[in-house]
């Protein structure tokens, strides 16, 4: 069964960041919809006043345009964005797939520790990331990433999540664990760690390990495409 798959990039990235991931999905007959979110259209795009709710609304608008059941895929901060869309349209989502990401609880923020410059958050220096983030991201990939990086609207990183419909907890989820193994996520859930508190509430979650750093769409794109495809086909 062909599915509509909406792909939501993480911070500093636009729709083109999925280009090496989508071939297995397209070859399998699925329809892919990689998104460029508001404020990420170009380095010169206006970013003032754009918050997390605006990015969630952009995903919901695409869901409504498609008009049928969808699979949502979110990388990094895009995981919070797709979770907000699941909350807004729980009946329209057959599965949410979190790529080195997870759902964000009510009142949580994606990352208000990122250094902002005015209305935007530029891609920080590599020294600002943990070693686990940067696994497999060699010098060439780092240069390519930095060359394509677009400043993130500050409000998306800093604005609290607002949730409304607990039917979101009934939507099956897949977590593709990259920089931390899924066994560690399960340990955190068992320990009641607040970082995974919302994930622990989702009634059906499967875990897939894809060991690499935080940007598998660059470091292991073919493997990521196959992992997403497997999750989509379980949903279909």
UniProtKB/TrEMBL annotation:
Residues 5-224 form the AB hydrolase-1 domain. It comes from the Bacteria. SUPFAM superfamilies: alpha/beta-Hydrolases. InterPro entries: AB_hydrolase_1 (IPR000073), AB_hydrolase_fold (IPR029058), Sec-Metab_Biosynth_Hydrolase (IPR052897). GO terms for molecular function: catalytic activity. This is Esterase/lipase. It comes from Arthrobacter crystallopoietes BAB-32.
